[in-house]
Design a protein that fits this description.
The chain is mainly α. The protein is built from 5 helices and 2 strands; from the N terminus they run βααβααα. The protein has one domain. A two-stranded antiparallel ribbon has the order 1-2. It is flat and about 40 Å long. The N terminus is likely disordered.
Length: 131
């Protein structure tokens, strides 16, 4: 997309005359399922997509850091300067990551509704006991 170009969200509101919002059956994505009318009607500059990709990278790194703290210090451990546990910090970082995914989907960069079957298959594989 060229600089200054915009992306319309109208494709989310009329997918083959079906539901007006994405329909997610994966529990982790339930927070993404109901974008506001303002988000659906918005036009986003291409530079915003670039910004969102930068934020996705940043939030992904913060999730990695939060997991590392749990592995090193434990789930219930707290940093001396904070009131939240490492687990609470991880949950907050995952919420931020999901918000970025939602924004990327809202601006048309991602369409996670088409990925549900693949995500469910991978989730099942992850939860299958090891031999």
């Amino acid at each position: 997309m060229q600089a200054g170009a915009t992306t319309s969200y109208t494709h989310l509101t009329k997918k083959k005359n079906m539901a007006t919002t994405p329909n997610y059956s994966i529990p982790a994505y339930q927070a993404l399922k109901s974008p506001t009318q303002e988000v659906l009607a918005a036009e986003v500059p291409a530079t915003k997509t670039s910004y969102l990709l930068d934020k996705l990278q940043e939030e992904s790194a913060e999730v990695i850091q939060a997991v590392s703290k749990i592995r090193r210090f434990g789930k219930q451990s707290k940093h001396p300067e904070r009131n939240t546990t490492n687990h609470q910090e991880l949950v907050g970082e995952i919420e931020d990551l999901l918000a970025i995914l939602s924004a990327l989907e809202a601006c048309g960069y991602l369409d996670l509704t088409t990925s549900q079957q693949s995500i469910q298959t991978k989730t099942k594989q992850l939860l299958t006991p090891w031999p």
